Amino acid sequence: MTCVLAFAGSAMAAPAISAITAGAFHTCALTSVGGVECWGYNDDGQLGDGTTSESSTPAHVSSTPVDVSGLSSGVSAITGGWAHTCALTDAGAVDCWGNNDYGQLGDGTTAESLTPVAVSGLSSGVSAISAGGFGTCALTSAGGVECWGYNDDGELGDGTTTDSSTPVDVSGLSSGVSAIAAGFYQTCALTSAGAVECWGDNTYGELGDGTTTDSSTPVDVSGLSSGVIAIAAGAVQTCALTSAGAVECWGDNTYGELGDGTTTDSSTPVEVSGLSSGVVAITAGSQDTCALTSAGAVECWGDNYDGELGDGTTTDSSTPVDVSGLSSGVIAITAGSEHTCALTSAGAVDCWGNNNYGQLGDGTMTSTSTPVEAIGPQSISWSQEGPYIYGSGPVTFDASASSGFPVSYTVQSGPCSVSGSSLTLTGAGSCVIDANQAGDVFITPAPVVSQTITINPATPTISWPAPAAITFGTPLSATQLDASATGAGGGSLPGSFTYAPGAGTVLNAGANQTLSVSFAPSDSTDYTSASATVQITINQAPTKLTTAPGVSARLTRADTGQPLAGQTLTFKAGSSTLCTAVTNSSGTAGCTSATAVALAVLNQGYTVSYAGTSNYLSSSANGSATGF
User: Fold this and answer.
1) Taking Cα atoms as reference points, which of 482, 487, 561 lies closest to residue 515?
2) Which of 287, 407, 504, 618 is buried deepest, with most CB atoms within 10 A?
């Protein structure tokens, strides 16, 4: 409820978390940059994140910190009530959020708010705040006190028992006050003279005036007219810290929360056993109380049903017991309804007690009788990447942190670079990439997750336009064998080309004949070899027959005049075959028999024909039988 801060020991660098406060079942922290984060029960929006639930945890609960909407900076103090929370800004204004059934948010309404709303009339000039069960109070820079919210027992101190949704002046306390503490149904003020005054419910003597009569205006706490430096109010008990470092408490003592070794209520202050000196801060929960010593240790007493005394047991104690593991290094303490938290000089928040709503902030809802760190751990999940091929991408990584925070990536080694979550492959090989999440003031850095990502060599792209048809007898040349290779990014890739068949080869005539090429890149690290094929048509060569004197003819290529040897010519006269003859090296052949010549003469000429082959076209010619 009430958080009283003190720094034990010598001055030190400000921690990342500068203050903590516990509500009934939620906890909040103030960061060194003036931001506020809260965790725990959120049924009334007391976490201030704009919701009443967290998707990653059960409804109405967040067991890890969430940011308070709009309060990422500029806050100087925080306080938690039963189901509402308030913040004091650097400008001296007050914002509140959460439950507002009795006007405890101070905005002139009784409408609950899931995000901070400004307290009416308190836009400046406030120096301290304290939230009780269903009410809130502010200490002005002039030393006056104003309160708002629930007032059934007079806890607003204005002389009435009427609730107020806007601040009202506490009667008689327009100046001279140095600190305030709001309990569940009672409120107290510490004057600049070191005296304590209280008002509100007094069923158990929690006003400390020697009676059990409620009061709607401040009454003096018996025996504490001076010498007090801090105060704390719980549900039904109130305590004071004296300038000598001693602690005195009054009110309900059912569970020993007065710390005097008894369970007897007291309407006047009694000394807490064993704490006559050496205490620098106090805090009061529902029915337990704690003290921070000058050595940085924490001691607690009272109700221990949920382990809120932190001694490893659930046994109540009417005298102070040491909180396990916190014998030094603590700089602030705060108590909620059934849990307690401590802020260490290292900036850690340790909590213990009831955790049914995640108010311990350790990511669980398991209660504990010894401190656990509210700064939760996190881990990174990252499915194995790759393998990838050089030239592909860029690749987008998808690692995730259990905290929900974004993951960053760094290159340890290898042919790659990272920008944000995008990986650019700069070559083939193995890239070692680290996935990192640095955490924040509440979440510890995640263990680094490293991956070795295989980047396989790229296969070059071979470009080879289909060559135009050529005629049989034309040797293959660079005109047909003109493949090229490109690499990643589309640039020309150097290397050697091997063609089959190679340059100078003469192919037989035919359609769709296959030419192939193999490419060996000069950069054999980043690129594999590659191959490609194209189809080429080899046309039959044209032929020409030229008759000669007698029954003879010469066969040549029609396009080049090259004589064609070894080809069979057929000579006919009419329908009669005169002869067939094979051309010699000069392409000439003819009929030599007298009978053939005679028939040619008789028919006054002859026809010579060439049937062609797979490589040569057919041709024919008419010859004269003259010249014999």
Assistant:
1) 482
2) 287
Residue 296 in this model has a pLDDT that exceeds 50 = yes
* Number of residues written out for the chain: 628
Instruction: Please write the tens of the pLDDT for every residue from 35-83.
Output: 998 999 999 999 999 988 643 333 455 666 778 889 889 999 999 999 9
**Type of residue found at 240:** A
**Which one has a higher pLDDT value, 239 or 362?**
239
Query: Are the CB atoms for 424 and 492 separated by under 8 Å?
Result: no
Query: Terminal CA-to-CA distance of the chain, rounded, Å?
Result: 140
Handedness of CA 558, 564, 570, 572 (dihedral sign): positive
Q: Is the pLDDT reported for residue 208 higher than 60?
A: yes
Give just the sign of the alpha carbon dihedral 562, 565, 567, 570.
positive
* Contacts for 612 with CB less than 8 Å, ≥ 6 apart: 540, 543, 618, 619
Is the CA virtual torsion 412, 413, 417, 421 positive or negative? negative
User: Are residues 142 and 125 in contact, defined by beta-carbon separation less than 8 angstroms?
Assistant: yes
Selection from 397, 396, 400, 365 nearest residue 379 by Cα: 400
DSSP 122: -
On whether the pTM is more than 0.85, the answer is no
- Is pLDDT at 429 greater than 50 in this prediction? yes
Identify which of 530, 521, 533 has the alpha carbon closest to the alpha carbon of residue 481.
Answer: 533
Both tokens of 348, joined, read 């850690």
CA distances from 227 to 195, 208, 218, 434 (A): 7, 16, 19, 58
Q: What's phi and psi for 466, nearest 5 deg?
A: -60, 125
pLDDT digits (tens, 9 = 90+) for 71-108: 889 999 999 999 999 999 999 999 999 999 999 999 99
Environment class of 193 (CB within 10 Å of its CB; exposed 0-12, middle 13-18, buried 19+): exposed
Contact 269, 208 (CB under 8 A): yes
Asked if residues 422 and 396 have their Cβ atoms less than 8 Å apart, the reply is: yes
Strand partners, 500: 516
Sort strands 279-284 and 288-293 into parallel, antiparallel or unpaired.
Answer: antiparallel
508 is written with which tokens?
């037989």
Instruction: Give the span between the Cα atoms of 448 and 205, in whole angstroms.
Output: 56
Tokens of 537: 């048509």
C-alpha 299/C-alpha 417 separation (Å) is 54
Rounded Cα distance, 305 and 95, in Å: 34
Distance between CA 81 and CA 337 in Å, rounded? Answer: 10
E strand intervals along 315-377: 317-322, 330-335, 339-344, 349-353, 368-373
Distant-in-sequence, close-in-space partners of 455: CB < 8 Å, separation ≥ 6: 386, 387, 388, 389, 390, 414, 415, 416, 425, 427, 428, 429, 430, 431
**596 three-class SS:** helix
Q: What percent of the chain has pLDDT over 90?
A: 81
Residue 68 in tokens = 């308070």
